[in-house]
Task: structure prediction
Amino acid sequence: MSVVQLEPPRDAWDDRTVSQLLTLAQSRSAEDRQRLLLKVTCLCEATRPPAEVGPLLSDIFLTLAAQAERDIRLALSERIAGVDWAPPALINMLALDEIEIARPVITSSPLLQDTDLIRLLIEATLEHQIAVARRPQLSRPVADTIIDRGEAVTMTALASNRSADISEDAMRKLVDHSRRLAGLRAPLTRHPRLNEQLAQQLYQWVGQALRQSIGERFRIDDAQLNAAVQQAAAKAVGSPEWRTAPTSRLAEDRERSDMERRLVDKLEAAGQLRPGLLIRALREQRFELFEQALAALGGFSDAQVHHAVRAPTAEPLYLACIAVGVDKAVFASLLVEVRKLSGGLPADGGWTATPMNAHSASRAFRQMMEKPAIV
Result:
């Protein structure tokens, strides 16, 4: 459906215009309701609405926007994203709409407060959270919330946002996260709030190209730094703390596993758990998130997914992925990423790219898991 473009009237907000708005508001025609929504928007763009019609506008916007078709809501979002006269309740409603509609207001609306943005980080989809992290001039409390939540893609988006107000302590946390999240490293090396002390820490686990980038900004003696790292490692091996490191790592692994499970549960409860998360998890080297998401998407047990990943052939994993909606053309590249993170498993045995729907693949997978050789 095409959006009707309406020219603003010459005498905006006169009695005749308000009367026309009321007449359109009383109509039950879907077309009249859409015309009313666009007409009000055009009026507001032409002339700031007077205070006395504020309550009327709020009622019109909230009622009609909730009933409007997608393209009307998208046009409305794009038109009012940067204005300060829109009803805050409408802005918040659009911010929770599907991401293409929500993105303009999340990015630009001056009416979204820190509490509104933090609510999006907690309640909305990953796409919404990324839009929040990319918002220009993002405040420090919102940036801190993003880092505290520890979601890799959202933190990466924040690290790429050079206008965000990120404190030195928050930058330190991002650099710490970058040790396990490779995607954070490149944007951090270019971030204006990276200081020399944090640059030296980041320098230890980035590749040669990023080391050169850091070296162009800060004076870092590579030989001296390497010697310091080796000395620290040698000291750690002989210290009492070294003997307790395995227990610490186990606790850290359990904590990470619990965090990934909470994320999967949250996405599933919100109806936002989708096959695309599998690819994203592998790219971010979050293998436990991949396994837990695959189990939740297919209604499989953790043990079934565990055995499929470690089977002597890729056939079980292929069936499980097709069962949850992964395109068979994507599976080959997915398998490469899985083997990188799991020590070459599943083993070299191939798989048969048999055309089948998700239901048939799920049934075949479950039957295969019942075989003694697999279980």
DSSP finds 22 helices and no strands in the chain.
